[in-house]
């Protein structure tokens, strides 16, 4: 018995005459086509949203947007790969009506419309909101590091520059000494060696000048580090070591793990990211109140208070105390809110003394520390034990009471935020950026998160229901306009 054989390549094959025959009723390209066609790209800020009267006709930005949405959904982000797919992929032939833009046109579209792409993501968020795919009660907030187009060798800190300059100075001294020895020898062999040493010396001096220029640039900018390939990316520590990255923040709704909003920062940690992401998520979900859960890496009393003032209820674990062996931890000092004092383990009262305006801290201590028998267990310094209380600590204390009364909310955090990041980085293979600069990276991130939300919505509702919801939403908008 033989094997299963394919058809002869010389056999004439009659394909269906219409491309529609290749696209089934549940194919995602049907929704991409309908949804992008109803977007007002001019209002969103897309370039060439209206055709020019003179000159060579441009590609319709709707077609290029469809191409990118299809690409990100199907793990194709490269402009060259998208160009190839448009020439051989039947779904793309249907979606683009057999158009095949060159890779430069495709790449320029993503670059030129970097400010408009995040608004496309938010328009899909509003559609999902109209379809009741968001619970709009609880969101989980977390950040993850995505690698930038910048290697660690092209990222410098003050300490790294000093170390390299010191190494160059030592090398230059050795070469200069070797040159003196070569001059003293005055032989043909020494002359050849001296020429090589001169060449290496010039190379080192050029590198020295470059590093000194970076050192001056770093001092003038006030930044702690500088990146040469992508100037806005920063060296960040993650689970897989240190890499030059961006910190992508997302707010994930608890109902179906759909992303409500996002932000791209170059902050090395999450300390100052909570309030902005929480407030933008609240705005996109169109609610008066919102619950937010986050990990202790976000703990910042000022951020918690800002959320509280915006009617956002934060749930977060208490940060781990920095405890010195043999020294009383801060937790055993009792705060008396009525008298604005702390009571120490010895029963003494620490009153308010100084306000640190720069760090927004209130400092408390007592003169009784000098003669206290427990002083060696209270502080290692010569002076009194000083307690520093953030100005917004009251909001943090109210949060800890909420968490103690309802600890179940915190258990949902990992279930919410780890799912999208795991899907994007592992299943969709989008754990690094292709573009440079925070604004362009934000536009690229919006395409990635839109692809995640779109795949999730199609899995939950199906293409037909999404199309029906899109039609109802369009009808509603037309009625409200009239």
Quickly give the structural class: alpha+beta
Based on CA atoms alone, the radius of gyration comes out at 31 Å
Let me know the CATH homologous superfamily of the largest domain: Ribonuclease H-like superfamily/Ribonuclease H
What's the multimeric state? single chain
Overall form = flat
CATH architecture of the largest domain: 2-Layer Sandwich
Share in helix = 40-55%
Distance between the termini: 72 Å
Low-confidence stretches: none
The ordered H/E elements are: HHHHHHHEEHHEEEEHEHEEEEEHEHHHHH
Please, how many helices? 17
Could you say how many structural domains there are in total?
4
Strand content: 15-25%
Number of strands: 13
CATH topology of the largest domain: Nucleotidyltransferase, domain 5
Rounded average pLDDT: 89
CATH class of the largest domain: Alpha Beta
Q: Biggest β-sheet, characterized?
A: 6 strands, mixed
Question: How is this structure best summarized?
Answer:
By secondary structure, the chain is of the alpha+beta class. It has helices at residues 28-37, 41-44, 61-73, 79-88, 90-96, 103-112, 117-130, 158-185, 188-221, 274-285, 301-309, 375-378, 393-405, 408-411, 413-427, 438-461, 463-481, and strands spanning 138-147, 155-157, 225-227, 234-238, 241-253, 259-265, 290-294, 312-316, 334-336, 341-343, 349-356, 361-365, 387-390.
Topology, please?
Layout lengths: L27 H10 L3 H4 L16 H13 L5 H10 L1 H7 L6 H10 L4 H14 L7 E10 L7 E3 H28 L2 H34 L3 E3 L6 E5 L2 E13 L5 E7 L8 H12 L4 E5 L6 H9 L2 E5 L17 E3 L4 E3 L5 E8 L4 E5 L9 H4 L8 E4 L2 H13 L2 H4 L1 H15 L10 H24 L1 H19 L1
Helix pairs in contact: 1-3, 1-5, 1-17, 3-16, 4-5, 4-6, 7-16, 8-9, 10-11, 11-13
